[in-house]
């Protein structure tokens, strides 16, 4: 099995074997990212494949000076490409919500170091996030889960920074309402 350094070096040289290894290694990760935006499996798979096409076309722009952080840097770059590709697909469909069920494992936090309670809370939160209107869900996912700034979200979605902040605030309020309705009086203060 070849390491991530060799795979990335091979991809920079457009080596098809390394491109296939990279695709297979991170396909599940990419699909989980896209599923947070696009709920129909077939469409999500298409978006992931489109994202990989973009990734391989732009691979020469990927830079990482510190080899010990190479995989983290690559995964962040891959995440950004997949989120942007999903948003482009949603924009083509006027941000209409996707219809279809998503398996619960898709919403699980990829961080395996989290304890069981944290994973359960994350999974429960994702159930509520799926109920949000599409624009609120997208801004919430981008800001809270994917770590984009309001400026980056505004640029990506062609909205103002104020609209991004407003949509996040409304998403939080709706999530609070969903949770309060189901469980009594839990508060989401610092999501």
What are the key terms here?
single chain; 191 residues; mainly alpha; Rna Polymerase Sigma Factor, Chain: A; Arc Repressor Mutant, subunit A; 2 domains; 8 helices; 0% strand; globular; RNA polymerase sigma factor; transcription regulation; sigma factor; RNA_pol_sigma-70_dom
The CATH architecture category of the largest domain equals Orthogonal Bundle
The main β sheet shows up as: none
- The CATH first-level class of the largest domain comes to Mainly Alpha
User: What's the name of the CATH homologous superfamily of the largest domain?
Assistant: RNA polymerase sigma factor, region 2, helix turn helix motif
Rg calc: 18 Å
Task: Enumerate how many helices there are, as a single number.
Answer: 8
Order of helices and strands: HHHHHHHH
Shape: globular
Strand coverage percent:
under 5%
The stretches of 5 or more residues where confidence is low (pLDDT under 50) are: 98-110
Number of strands: 0
- Average pLDDT works out at 82
When the domains are counted, the total is: 2
First CA to last CA: what distance?
39 Å
What's the arrangement of secondary structure elements?
Elements: H1 4-12, H2 16-35, H3 41-57, H4 70-92, H5 116-129, H6 134-145, H7 150-157, H8 161-183
Family: Belongs to the sigma-70 factor family. ECF subfamily.
Protein name: RNA polymerase sigma factor
InterPro entries: RNA_pol_sigma-70-like (IPR039425), RNA_pol_sigma-70_dom (IPR014284), RNA_pol_sigma70_r2 (IPR007627), RNA_pol_sigma70_r4_t2 (IPR013249), RNA_pol_sigma_r2 (IPR013325), RNA_pol_sigma_r3/r4-like (IPR013324), WH-like_DNA-bd_sf (IPR036388)
